[in-house]
C-alpha cells in the first residue's frame, strides 16, 4: 500500500491514497500505522477517498471531489482536522489530484475550502466557530475554566494566563462527560501580546500533539472573547511552529505551513 507522510506545524499525518474506496481501515490498523515505535508514527491518518464513493459524505460530491476521511492515532474518527486538511490539500496538488489554487474538500463537518498561497502556506476556511458555553477541566491536579467551542469537532479552550511550557500534559485532562459525551480536545493558552497567544493542546484520540489547527481557532476565539473582540487576525504559537487565525463575522481562516516529507510502500 502506498503512503505519504506530511505535517503542518509538526502535527503529523500518514496519508493513505485510496481513490476508489477499496480500503477497510480498522481502528487497530490505523493505531498500528500511527505507532511511533512499531509503525510509521503520526498523530493521525488522512485517508484520501473520492467523495462520491463514500456513503458518509456523498452528498458533498458536487462541491468537493475528495473526502478527507480523518482518523486519530488511536483509530477513532474525527469530524475535522485543521492541520490535516491543509496537508491533505498539499498532497492533492503535489500529486496532481487537484489543480493549484482554491478548491473544496469534503469532511465529516461539511465542505471546507482550501487555498495554496504563493508564499507556500496553505489556508483553509474553517467556518464559523460556535461558542456553546463554558466548562471546566483539570490538568495535573489544577482546575481551569474554558470556552466550549465547536469547530465541527469539540474543543475546550482555556485561557490560563500563565506560561504553558511547564504544564504536564502527559495524561488525559479530566473533562465533564455530560458536556462532551464524545470526548474533547483541550487547549491551554496564554496571551503574550496584542493578538498573540501561546498554546498547547491535548487532542482527543491522539494525546498531546505539537499543534492542532481546529484548536488554534478555538483558542483564538477564547482569547478574543476575553479581550472583548470578535474579529481580527491573531498569531498562534504552538510547540511545532506558528500559524495565523483570522476571525470575521461570518467565518474563520487558518493559515500556515503544510509540507510533505516522505513517501513509500507500507508493508501490510
Ligand atoms: N489535529 C487536528 C484535530 C484532529 C482531530 C481531533 N483530535 C478530534 O478528535 O477532534 C487539527 O489540526 O485540527
TrEMBL record:
Catalytic machinery residues: 81 (proton donor), 81, 212 (proton acceptor)
UniProt binding sites for substrate: 11, 72, 82-83, 153, 185, 203-204, 213-214
Keywords: Amino-acid biosynthesis, Cytoplasm, Isomerase, Lysine biosynthesis
Record's GO cellular component terms: cytosol
Gene3D superfamilies xref list: Diaminopimelate Epimerase, Chain A, domain 1
Keyword Repeat: no
TM ranges: none
Enzyme Commission number, as recorded: 5.1.1.7
Chemical reaction(s) catalysed: (2S,6S)-2,6-diaminopimelate = meso-2,6-diaminopimelate
Pathway: Amino-acid biosynthesis; L-lysine biosynthesis via DAP pathway; DL-2,6-diaminopimelate from LL-2,6-diaminopimelate: step 1/1
A GO BP entry: lysine biosynthetic process via diaminopimelate
Pfam families: DAP_epimerase (PF01678)
Site note Could be important to modulate the pK values of the two catalytic cysteine residues, residues: 155, 203
Matches recorded under SUPFAM superfamilies: Diaminopimelate epimerase-like
GO molecular function: diaminopimelate epimerase activity
HAMAP family: DAP_epimerase
Protein family membership: Belongs to the diaminopimelate epimerase family.
PANTHER family for the chain: DIAMINOPIMELATE EPIMERASE, DIAMINOPIMELATE EPIMERASE, CHLOROPLASTIC
Protein's name according to its UniProt entry: Diaminopimelate epimerase
Species assigned in the record: Streptosporangium becharense
Lineage of producing organism: Bacteria, Bacillati, Actinomycetota, Actinomycetes, Streptosporangiales
Name of the gene this protein is made from: dapF
